[in-house]
């Protein structure tokens, strides 16, 4: 086996990679270190290691964020159900069906994706307010479904369009209807792409702070995880830095579990959508 020649460029690239990894994980290590110390120790010796591990931060943080985490998960699950239904049906229609205006409609979807999210905040707020949905979970769920579906439709359209036509022709010969082609042929094979869409949309919704802050202005009972923790981190509540750091770690666990359990399908979906597109 031929040995790889070690050049200056090879060494420089590896050093740069190590530096980038360090810059990526250093804030995470600092947050973990903060969560294991009392607030006084954090203030007096920010980067110092804890002399004794203060697990009480996690106990207090659990009761502090358990309800907001539940609110965020409820909104994400309900929204994801709607998003995946719309994405799978729309992606199949654009990718496999031929009808008048298909290209125009798909072009409109692409145009919507190019509009910055911040430009839609004011009209979205006016719509939600006129519908009387402020300070309710529907003020989050409906805009999330309408906004997070765009990327998924584009990804699903590319996936369905590049699926082998022989599968659908064979099913048509057996007398399958268009609905049966979707449910029995296309949908079972689209698991990776739908999981990719689900993880991407779920992470975006769970980590959203701006929209919940605008529409959920009542008591803390219905506020999301990011609202509660970010507001306290900004000084609008508890000033216990150790508790806030522990709350961030606890709140990250649902995302880590969901992403890690579906990572294989997520990578397949991203590669499939990118290569076939």
TrEMBL record:
Location(s), subcellular: Cell membrane
GO CC list: plasma membrane
Membrane topology: Multi-pass membrane protein
Any one GO BP annotation for this protein: transmembrane transport
All copies of domain ABC transmembrane type-1, residue ranges: 69-262
Membrane-spanning residues: 12-32, 72-92, 104-125, 137-160, 181-206, 241-267
Keywords: Cell membrane, Membrane, Transmembrane, Transmembrane helix, Transport
Classification via CDD domains: TM_PBP2 (cd06261)
InterPro entries membership: MetI-like (IPR000515), MetI-like_sf (IPR035906)
Record-linked Pfam families: BPD_transp_1
Main localization of the protein described in the UniProt heading: membrane
Family as reported in the entry's similarity comment: Belongs to the binding-protein-dependent transport system permease family.
PANTHER family found in the cross-reference section: ABC TRANSPORTER PERMEASE PROTEIN MG189-RELATED, ABC TRANSPORTER PERMEASE PROTEIN MG189-RELATED-RELATED
Protein name per Swiss-Prot or TrEMBL: Carbohydrate ABC transporter permease
């Amino acid at each position: 086996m031929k040995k790889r020649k070690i050049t200056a460029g090879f060494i420089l690239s590896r050093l740069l990679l190590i530096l980038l990894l360090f810059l990526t994980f250093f804030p995470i290590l600092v947050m973990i270190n903060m969560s294991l110390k009392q607030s006084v120790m954090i203030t007096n010796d920010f980067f110092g290691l804890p002399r004794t591990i203060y697990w009480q931060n996690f106990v207090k943080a659990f009761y502090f964020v358990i309800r907001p985490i539940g609110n965020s998960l409820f909104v994400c699950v309900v929204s994801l159900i709607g998003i995946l239904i719309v994405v799978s049906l729309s992606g199949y229609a654009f990718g496999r069906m031929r009808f008048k205006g298909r290209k125009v409609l798909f072009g409109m979807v692409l145009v919507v994706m190019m509009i910055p999210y911040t430009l839609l905040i004011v009209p979205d707020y006016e719509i939600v307010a006129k519908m009387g949905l402020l300070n309710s979970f529907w003020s989050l769920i409906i805009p999330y479904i309408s906004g997070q579906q765009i990327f998924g439709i584009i990804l699903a359209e590319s996936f369905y369009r590049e699926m082998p036509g022989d599968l659908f022709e064979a099913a048509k010969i057996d007398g399958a209807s268009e609905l049966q082609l979707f449910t029995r042929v296309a949908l079972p094979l689209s698991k990776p792409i739908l999981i990719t869409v689900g993880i991407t949309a779920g992470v975006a919704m769970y980590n959203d702070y701006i929209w919940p802050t605008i529409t959920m202005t009542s008591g803390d009972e219905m506020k999301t995880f990011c609202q509660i923790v970010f507001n306290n981190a900004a000084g609008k509540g508890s000033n216990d830095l150790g508790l806030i750091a522990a709350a961030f770690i606890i709140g990250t666990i649902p995302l880590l579990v969901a992403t890690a359990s579906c990572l294989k399908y997520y990578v397949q979906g991203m590669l499939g959508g990118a290569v076939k597109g």
